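Q: Got a minute? One more chain.
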Amino acid sequence: MVDCILGVSNPRQWHSEHLTLNNDHYSSWMVLLGGARLITDVADEIGVGMHFNPFVSWNDKMFKYGVVCMHDLVHVLLDNLDIENVNSVNLRAAMSAALLLLPSKFTEEELYAKICSLSYMGDLRMLFAEDRNKVKKLVQGQFELFRSMYKPFIEEYETKELLRRSLSGNTQPIISQDGGLLAARSLVSSLPQMVRSQMGMKLGEKKVLCDSVRVIQEIVIGSKDEAAKCMQTILQRKVMVSSARQAVSGLLALMP
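A: Always. Here it is, folded:
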């Protein structure tokens, strides 16, 4: 199945016009009871602002497409004008989160699989409709893309002596990571602010002198495992809420 995201200026108007052309793409009850208004209301009020039409056949291919307001897409860019730097921060945060959850030794593919799985941690849809091999397929199908994105951060963490790569008989090197407390603190410091804030509320914080000038709040971490479990709980809850809303919205869109 091919997934597509369509950004449109006015979702309600777009759905209204699209219904006249392809009303078979939509759930019949939504078409009968409210049409474009109901479709957008369900997406905005119950879902996460995007309506999906799955299982659409075209040119012997199966498609699933989502429709979202272009304003929302542009809003992300306007709020993050330095998008390259924002992307770098996000990639570093994802890698740090994955490393907290990984054992002392792992392969490059296992690293990318753990990074990819962060998006599905706590996702209710993975228990039912979603393909449980989705992460494995994504990583194996886009391995070189993952490598190109995360190679700079692997090298950065090697320089910081958080990681070490060693060649083996396989094409992928074995990666070893420092499981000590200082390494765990370094990884936690790269997590998103929202996650760090909630971890601080759960584990506690202390004031630490930084650069002999600044005083910062540091999360009190007893061990890498403690930090990993706390972070995992926070991520699972966040993903669960979002996925539950999207699942209900998707279920309503699928009902005949």
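A: Residues 43 and 49 are 5 Å apart (CA to CA).
Q: Perfect, thanks.
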